[in-house]
Structures are given as C-alpha cells and as structure tokens.
Amino acid sequence: MAKDFNHPVVVESYDEHIRKLIPGYELIHLQVHALLKTYLPQQAHILVVGCGTGYELQYLAEQFPQWNFTAIDPAPNMIDKAKQHIDGLGLSSRIECIVGDTSILHNIDTTFDAALAILVSHFVPVESKLDFFKDISNSLSNTGLCLSVELTQFENEQQLDSLKTLTLDSGLHEKQVEIMADRITQDFALIRPDEIIDLYKQAGFALVKSFAQVLNYYGFIGLKYSIGR
Question: Which pTM was predicted?
Fold first, then answer.
C-alpha cells in the first residue's frame, strides 16, 4: 500500500522518522542554506514545494528574517501541521501555506526568486515530472533558481542494499528498513540523475548542476540564467 502522507499518524511521526530515513537529512538543509545565501539577494520570496510539517520553513525563516515564503503541499493535514508549527513560532506573517501541488502555481500571483523541492519529485509519476519542473520554472523570475533533492534510480541490487545498510546504521530498525525498500518500489517513480538534468533543461533552466550526492540521493541546482554570479 502506498504511504498516505495525509494520514494523521504519518504527519505526527514525520519529522522524527525522516531523519533516520534520509541519510544526511540535516546536511541537506545546511547545503540549501549555503546555496540560497550565496545566490539570492538580501530580500527574496521563496517557493517551498512539498513543505511537509514545516521544519524546512522554520529553519529558513529563522536563517533569513527578511525573506518571505510561499509553501505548498497536496496533503491538507501536512499543511495544517505546518501552519500550527509556524504560528506557534510567530513566523506566520512571512509564510503563506497553500494546499495543492505545482499545478496551482499559475493561480498564484507571485514571481519567486527561488524554489525548493526537497525530497519531492521522486514521488511524481514519470509522465508528470516534466510538468512538475515546468510549473516551478514558470513561477520563477528570469534570474531564479530551483534546488531539489531526490532519490534516483537504482542500477543494481547492491545500490539498494547499500542504502538499506546506511539507514539501518542511521537508526531505523530492520523491519522499518524492509518497509522502506518495499515502499521505494510502491511509492517512488525513480529516474536516472542525467534524466533529471534533462527535465530541468526542458523545463527552462539554462544551467543545471548536481551539488550533492549520498548514495542514490542527489541534489540539483537549476538556474534560469546561463552565467553564474
């Protein structure tokens, strides 16, 4: 059975579980912070695709107090949890949370300086991935960028076994690791890293690079302009 990210139990346990499930989860956010600080102006508006329970929003809003954020997630319970989280921290004046996937972006009258899609696109069906990245690209300014992190296709059983070993070492129990492996087959639509780069380019990004890798997890940065600054 595919994992229901709107289920209350999943929502409540999400933050604790994902730190064991995703190798280097905290490092992902440190790298995102460094890239955003390097590429963006002091005042910026950020789109967060698949905001989950709001951890990412809290971290970025606290790191960049002059920035505004628009967060979307197709799971209403995730959005509710995120709203409760940021309201409790007094951050709601700079963060708007909206239920929906990237198809709603054309209805949002905002041009973003950057978009984040962290651990999201691997859930998007293969036939919908190009539209996913196009929706994001079209919502950005002509100097905008997108940062994404996704699980990519396994070339052999050893690659999956390596991921299982790493997550076991990170704190998952053996049963949880086996459930993870089963759900990768059921829930994920994995493609190769080079195919993700091609999708970025087809979606309108002029320059695309990988900025991180942990086994089959890759981080990508796509720039709407072709010359780095």
Answer: 0.90
